[in-house]
């Protein structure tokens, strides 16, 4: 690659307050159109906004989790533009005095840790939604507007242009999502639009100091889309530069079906919006005590948690990364360990059978019938030798379906591992008698044929014979 890629991200995260930012309307997703509305969020004449205190708390909380400096004096501004989904003809946002600034987070790509700067995080209101009669705006006869989303609180988090590849951009977005989920300020459901991002990308020759002209891609709503849109855009810009052309500063949209970006409009500048201070809202003054109070409420964040899992629980960096990616998984893991299960085995079960079943059925840990102490019990049954790890998979299947305790399932289904030497000996004798050929092979030096005989014993015992004992007894009786 002839060029260095420069990427910056603007993440819009819907804050999960019960009510909107400036009125008492519900923020519930999926309500019938235009039912969560009132004169304030519809921008009717004469109404006055009242700031939702929870939004400020969440803004500060997210800011602290992202290592930002929290502003003790912050204010709202009007960003003026016309669009049918914006009934007031301006968006109440923050321009020069955002709630949080100068933060950072760490990403890991190809085993390397990198610090990505966060310029600022500011509070604002979401716009409504246009519902087109056709599949796209151009193919529609008409469009309706749904104002349910108008006034839902947003936190816009702007990064420094510190990312150098699509992989780094995705890692940043993943870490951002993880942190916002950990501090419980947003549910970050990308499929419902509660976490969306705009991506800026430009290219410059290696060693050049000046940034190239940047192009913005708006409203990318999945990790895959960010990756694909960036890959396409980098190639498009490189081709233009290779041919001696110039990149135009513009906003482009990603066409998922065609897998290309299309020009939307030339990029507007801040002055195009005629920002001015919002006269209907007083500035937000936050005390040091309040900030410290919110800081004290922060949970253990993903990086700290990952460190603890590697250092105290002996997990590999990779495993710890997977377990701590979501708070739900990390909390579940901690609960399984607390209930007495071995940490490494707990991690294996979570990343293996549990994740496999969750993904397959499209469920989350919260939907799962198996409670943490039950999974711990299952792991302990293997440790004690009551069941083999193979039988444990059968028990797990049953637990998944019924939510029953593993001990009960083992008891009811008669799955207790056979560790009685006499009982195993009897099966081994039978298998030796029934399989003269492999026995002969083994005695003639083909040591591999013992594998077949072990398999037969396991089969006849319905998987319940202790495999170590089977191997031992077979070797002894064949010698
Ligand atoms: Zn309202």
Q: How many helices?
A: 15
Average pLDDT rating: 93
Radius of gyration: 30 Å
Structural class: alpha+beta
Can you tell me the overall shape? elongated
The description of the largest β-sheet is: 9 strands, mixed
Tell me the strand order in the biggest sheet: 2-6-7-10-1-11-12-13-14
What's the N-to-C terminus distance?
64 Å
* Uncertain spans: none
Name every ligand kind in the structure: zinc ion
Helix-residue proportion: 25-40%
The strand count comes to 16
Indicate the proportion of strand residues: 15-25%
Itemize the secondary structure elements and their pairings.
Elements: E1 3-14, H1 53-65, E2 69-70, E3 73-74, E4 77-80, E5 90-93, E6 100-109, E7 112-125, E8 129-132, E9 143-146, E10 153-159, H2 166-182, E11 195-205, E12 215-220, H3 223-242, E13 250-255, E14 260-266, E15 276-277, E16 284-285, H4 288-296, H5 302-311, H6 317-324, H7 327-338, H8 343-361, H9 372-383, H10 389-402, H11 406-413, H12 421-434, H13 436-443, H14 450-460, H15 467-478
Parallel strand pairs: 12-13
Antiparallel strand pairs: 1-10, 1-11, 2-6, 3-16, 4-5, 4-15, 6-7, 7-10, 8-9, 11-12, 13-14
The site of zinc ion has 8 residues, from loops.
How would you portray this structure in words?
The protein is α+β, with helices and mostly antiparallel strands and 479 residues long. Helix content is 39%, strand content 20%. It has 15 helices and 16 strands. The protein has helices spanning 53-65, 166-182, 223-242, 288-296, 302-311, 317-324, 327-338, 343-361, 372-383, 389-402, 406-413, 421-434, 436-443, 450-460, 467-478, and strands at residues 3-14, 69-70, 73-74, 77-80, 90-93, 100-109, 112-125, 129-132, 143-146, 153-159, 195-205, 215-220, 250-255, 260-266, 276-277, 284-285. A 9-stranded mixed sheet has the order 2-6-7-10-1-11-12-13-14. A 3-stranded antiparallel sheet has the order 5-4-15, with no helix packed on it. It has a two-stranded antiparallel sheet with strand order 3-16. Helix 3 links the parallel strand 12 and strand 13 (250-255). Helix 2 (166-182) runs antiparallel to helix 3 and helix 12 packs across helix 15. The protein binds zinc ion. Residues 20, 23, 25, 37-38, 40-41, 151 line the site of zinc ion (ZN).
């Amino acid at each position: 690659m002839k060029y260095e890629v420069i990427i910056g991200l603007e993440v819009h995260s819907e804050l999960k307050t019960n009510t909107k930012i400036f009125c008492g309307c519900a923020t519930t997703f999926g309500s019938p159109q235009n039912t969560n509305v009132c004169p304030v969020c519809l921008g009717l004449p004469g109404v006055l906004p009242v700031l939702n205190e929870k939004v400020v708390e969440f803004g500060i909380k997210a800011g602290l989790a992202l290592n930002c400096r929290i502003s003790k004096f912050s204010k709202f501004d009007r960003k003026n533009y016309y669009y049918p989904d914006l009934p007031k003809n301006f968006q109440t946002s923050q321009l020069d005095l955002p709630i949080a600034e100068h933060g950072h987070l760490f990403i890991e790509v190809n085993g390397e840790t990198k610090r990505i700067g966060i310029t600022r995080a500011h509070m604002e209101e979401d716009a409504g939604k246009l519902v087109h009669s056709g599949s796209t705006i151009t193919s529609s006869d008409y469009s309706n507007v749904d104002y349910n989303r108008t006034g839902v609180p947003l936190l816009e988090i702007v990064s420094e242009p510190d990312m150098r590849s699509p992989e780094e951009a995705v890692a940043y977005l993943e870490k951002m999502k993880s942190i916002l989920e950990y501090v419980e300020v947003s549910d970050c459901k990308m499929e419902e639009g509660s976490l969306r991002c705009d991506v800026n990308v430009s290219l410059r020759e290696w060693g050049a100091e000046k940034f190239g002209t940047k192009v913005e891609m708006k409203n990318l709503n999945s990790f895959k889309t960010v990756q694909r849109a960036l890959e396409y855009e980098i190639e498009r810009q490189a081709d233009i530069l290779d041919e001696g052309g110039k990149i135009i500063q513009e906003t482009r949209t990603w066409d998922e079906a065609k897998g290309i970006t299309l020009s939307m409009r030339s990029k507007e500048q801040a002055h195009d919006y005629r920002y001015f201070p919002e006269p209907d809202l007083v500035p937000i003054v936050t005390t040091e005590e309040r900030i410290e109070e919110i800081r004290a409420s922060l949970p253990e964040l993903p990086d700290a948690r990952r460190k603890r899992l590697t250092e105290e629980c002996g997990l590999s960096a990779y495993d710890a990364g997977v377990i701590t990616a979501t708070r739900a998984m990390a909390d579940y893991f901690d609960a399984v360990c607390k209930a007495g299960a071995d940490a490494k085995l707990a991690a294996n079960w979570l990343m293996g059978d549990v994740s496999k079943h969750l993904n397959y059925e499209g469920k989350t840990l919260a939907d799962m019938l198996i409670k943490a102490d039950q999974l711990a019990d299952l792991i302990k049954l293997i440790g004690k030798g009551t069941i083999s790890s193979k039988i444990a998979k059968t028990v797990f299947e049953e637990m998944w379906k019924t939510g029953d305790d593993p001990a009960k399932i083992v008891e009811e289904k008669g799955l207790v591992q056979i560790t009685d030497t006499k009982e195993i000996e009897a099966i081994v004798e039978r298998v030796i008698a029934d399989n003269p050929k492999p026995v002969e092979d083994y005695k003639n030096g083909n040591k591999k044929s013992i594998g077949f005989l072990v398999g037969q014993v396991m089969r006849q015992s319905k998987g319940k014979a202790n495999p170590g004992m089977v191997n031992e007894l077979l070797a002894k009786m064949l010698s």
